[in-house]
Amino acid sequence: MDLATLWFWIVAFLFVGYFVLDGFDFGVGMSLPFLGRDDTDRRVLINTIGPVWDLNETWVIVAGAALFASFPEWYATLFSGFYLALLLILLALIARGVSFEYRHKRPDSKWKAWFDGMIVVGSAVPALLWGVAFANIVAGVPLDADHNFTGNLFTLLNPYALLGGLTTLLLFFTHGVVFASLKTDGELRERARRLATRSGLITIVVAASFLLWTGLAFGTLWFWIFAAVAAFALIGGWLMNLRGSEGIAFTLLAVTVATAVLALFSALFPDVMPASNDPANSLTIENASSTEYTLTVMTWVAVFTLPIVLLYQGWTYWVFRKRVTRSSIEAAAH
C-alpha cells in the first residue's frame, strides 16, 4: 500500500471517529424536545455529553487538517464547491457550542428555551448536511478540467443526497437516544429506550434504502461487506435496546456508524471526488495527493500522536462513565 492510499484510509478513520463520537452528541441534542419534559430533564440530557462534546468535535478539525495536508486538491475542490453547506454546518456547530455554555447563565425560562432551541437546530443541521455532503462525494458532482465544482447548492440537493442526509439524521438521533438511556436512570431512561425503539425502526428502513441505492449504483466488494456489517449491527442494536441492554445497543450502533462510513469510502475508492459530468475530470488518490515527502512526514507524526489522542479520549470517557441522575441535578441547584 503506497502512502497516498494509506492516507486515504487514515482520513476515513478520522471521519469514522468524528461521526461515531459527535454523532451521538447530535442525537442527544436533537432529543431535547422529545425527552426533556422539564428543565431538570433537559439539564440531565445536556450533562450526559457535557464533559465530552467539545473533545468529540475536535475529530472533525483533525480530519479537515489531515485532508488539507494529504490531499490538497481534494480539500480545495470540496471546500470551494460545498462552501455554503459547510458554512451552515460551521454556523450550526458554533450556535450549539455557545448554547451549551450560555443556557445556564440566567434562570429565566425563556432564556433557556431560546438556547435549547439552538442546541436542537445546531445538532440537526450538521447531522443532515454531513450525510448530504458525503452522499454527493460518493455519487460525484460536476467538475471542470481544473477540478472546480461547476454546480450550485441545488445540485447538491438531489434525491440520493437528501436520502443520505435523512439516513445520518435518523442514525445519529437513534444513537444519541440510546446513549441517553445508557447515561440516565429512572423514568427518563425508560422514555429514551422507548423512543429509541420507535426511531430505530424508521432508521432501519431509511438506512437500508440508502445503502441499497448506494450499492446498486456505486458498490464494490468491500462496500457490500461493510454495508452488511452495518445492517446486522443496526438490527442487533435495535434488538438489544428492545431488551434493555443499552451498553450493547450503543456499541452496536457505534459499529453501524463506523462500518457505514467505511462502506461509503470503499464505494468512493480509488476516487476522492468523482466528476459526474466527465470521468476524465475526476479527482483520484493519485492526482489529488501531496508529495511523497509530505506524506512521509505526516505518517511519522501520526504514528506518535494518534495513540496519545486515543488514550486521552478513552481516559476521559472512563472518568465520566457514570449515569447522570435527576437527584444530582436537583441537589446541585441548591
TrEMBL record:
Designated name of the protein: Cytochrome d ubiquinol oxidase subunit II
Main location: membrane
Phylogenetic classification of the source organism: Bacteria, Bacillati, Actinomycetota, Actinomycetes, Micrococcales
Membrane topology designation: Multi-pass membrane protein
Similarity comment: family membership: Belongs to the cytochrome ubiquinol oxidase subunit 2 family.
Transmembrane segments: 6-32, 74-94, 114-139, 159-183, 195-215, 221-240, 247-269, 297-320
UniProt-listed NCBIfam families: cydB
Listed GO biological process terms: aerobic electron transport chain
Presence of the UniProt keyword Ribosomal protein in the record: no
One Pfam family of this chain: Cyt_bd_oxida_II
Localization of this protein: Cell membrane
One Gene Ontology CC term in the entry: plasma membrane
One GO MF term: metal ion binding
